[in-house]
Design goal:
The chain has 500 residues and is an alpha/beta fold. It has 2 domains: 218 residues, Aldehyde Dehydrogenase, Chain A, domain 1, CATH 3.40.605; 182 residues, Aldehyde Dehydrogenase, Chain A, domain 2 (3-Layer(aba) Sandwich). The protein is 39% helix and 17% strand. It contains 15 helices and 20 strands. The strands form 5 sheets. Strands 11-13-14-9-8-15-16 form a 7-stranded mixed β-sheet, with helices on both faces. A 6-stranded mixed β-sheet has the order 5-4-3-6-7-18, with helices on both faces. Strands 1-2-20 form a 3-stranded antiparallel β-sheet. Strand 6, helix 7 and strand 7 form a beta-alpha-beta unit. Helix 1 packs antiparallel against helix 3. It is globular and about 85 Å long. The relative contact order is 0.12.
Length: 500
Amino acid sequence: MFRVPHHDPASISWPLGRRLNWVGAFRRLVATRQDDLIEAMHTDIAKPRFEGLVGDVAPLLAACAWIEKHGARILKPRRLPGGGVLSTAVRGIVTRAPLGRIAIIATWNYPVQLLGIELVQAIAAGNRVTVKPSENAPHSQTLLLDLALEAGRESQMPDGWLTRTDASREAGASLLRDNAFDHVVFTGSTNVGRAIAETLAPRLTSSTLELSGRDSAFVLSDADAELAADAIWNGITMNAGQTCMAPRRALVEERVYAEFVRRLMARAGAARPLPLVNERAAGEIHALAVQAHEQGCRSLSGVVEPPTADAQGIRRLIRPMVFADCPRNATLIEGRHFGPLLAVVRVANLEDALALHDSVDQVLATSVFTKDPSRVDAFRERLRSTIVTVNDCLTPTAHASVGLSGHGASGWGVTKGEEGLLAMTRPMYTTTTAPLLRFSMSSVTPAIEQGMAKFVRWWFGGKRPGQQPRRDAASTVAVAPLSEHRPRHAEAASSHTGNA
């Protein structure tokens, strides 16, 4: 059983300036010990060392530097805009208060980047944090937390501000069962996220759930086939395809289909096996590849190879595979996998591609390839993703200002960027009323009531000075609005959901 030490919030003071000093100290330690962190990730999950640098360490360092530069501005008190003629006597400010005690249940696929950014944002916002490391990444995340605590000693972190459990699966269940938190952050599978939400519901504990995506890459008729093939191939092979934002299917218009497939074929034919997290994961990917072949999908490498053993004798090496000419009923198109597989689907046009994408209930980052980026303006909202990358996959999401947020079966809440930092706080509004202008209900007479009614009707009933007529946004959109293209699962859900 793990119990979080209790501390009276009123007795603990750690000002924002010192918290940002901690972020700087943590950044310097991570940069200094980056080789150790990279080696630990290689030990934990066989992550290639260069990917450990560019996919984990560098994005964390960039996020730390970004918070050091912008954190004070984002979290400082802000004066509220005027409330209108009826609030002339009122002035207000909004301040950001920490959520309180936060639990972070860490994930393994980007063990340094994801845990590190979540930790930095939570602490910079003023929260006390307890971390449960992933059972699949104990070495790298233990070292990362050691560095965070060392930075805390340099910056006078109060005792108990950062605590941790062991990395076992049982520790995660005990953490939520035996302790009361103000907020929980979890990154992982949808099934586990749903179970955590059910655990937190009786106490009405809020949460940030970053769950999996099953995203599409749109290759439009005017796309550069070589650029699209290279970016999408990088997307499905980076981290051995074990990325929640990696594309699961490429929806390719007729005009560019043959050239795109040809470019991908060269890459698939030369691909080398990649290490997945364990034998079970590799076995699941192989089984899905076999099923895709049986359902009429064509392997661009010409083979469907079973997993092979790595230097430690673990059968977790799998060759990345791309399947073209996929029938619409192929299971692979659903994208419920977490590894280096891609379904390539020929589509007649953009509307055909959007209709197929509409059937997906988990989206995080959707890619669009076109020589005219302005085309995306017409259907961006239809994609439903929080992140839309144009002419690239994955890499732009490492930008320190870009937030990550799911919705529906992909979770809720925001991590990373300004919105992620603000999500670790709650707004507090303070209003001050000028005594001489204060309105008193006890002084209302029938004449005042009638006069007020006439004034309100005159003041709010007509066009405001300087107000321009609004354009009908629908007239500028080339495809039907999202409400007319809800996935089938959403239509079914709406019949069982009351009004909020």
